[in-house]
Design a protein that fits this description.
alpha/beta, seven-stranded mixed sheet, five-stranded mixed sheet, 13 helices, 14 strands
Length: about 325
Amino acid sequence: MFKLAEDWGTAGRPYRDAIVDTLIDMMKDNKSIVMLEADLGGASGTLKIQRELPEQFFECGISEANMMGMAAGMSSEGLIPFTHTFGPFASRRCFDQVYLSGAYAHNTINIWGSDPGFTVGANGGTHTTWEDVALMRTIPGSVVVDGADPVQTEWVVREFAKTEGVHYLRTGRKSSYKIYEEGSTFELGKGNVVRQGSDVLIVTAGQLLRDALEAAESLEKQGISTEVIDMFCIKPLDAKLVLSESAGKKAVVTFENHGVIGGLGDACASCLMEAGVSVPFKRHGVTESFGQVGTADWLQAEFKLTAADLEETVKALLA
């Protein structure tokens, strides 16, 4: 069961702290869990694992495809590998290794692709990924998650360790916002209705959940009752929830820190179209763009992914 924190929207602990501390806690009890890093241990915080559990940590260097192959081999020998690198390198750069050595060979690879979309900050266009969800969704049997906050992310990491297959988790590394109360639990393949509303449905995921909730509050003050779903598990998609909560709505908007092609918006659109549901619909995300250099806040505004931008999209669609 989940519950919104009373102080949701305020600063939370860094994502990387939640992930690394959770892994260390699990690794101490289960020596089969191992961590593979691609020369980013300082950035991700996984050097803490190297210091505390050196026999369960493997530094692979700037060789992401090789790291995924190593992880697949370890899986075939009964280990439970977790890997980390920045989102574009975890998806674009080593897609074939994840697809063939991982999924096709029925091996388990738990992948943390960090700093998706605008959260990349000053690392710029080469490190920006607007397409990682689209790529990872195409892998048969894959699970794709966009963590909303550290509480949800910690739960996801623990859940990944229990199940076999290719699992992809995208989150920032540093700053986060509180959304859920400590101890909240979730279910892979199930979305969460975090705010009820009767006029408009917003389906979102990841760090943008805070902005979606803020937009919904503002719209409510303008007489537009807005429901918000946290679709943190983008694949498998909770199609039943999308359909049930779209019923009777005047509009449905998806809101994602990702390109509009192949992401959460496309997944929801396919769900609605295949069920024959006719409702005004809009994918609010990034269109035909590469990344830029800037602070995360500046990039979020530059790519029109703020609460205010979402609010304008909703009002335009209703009009």
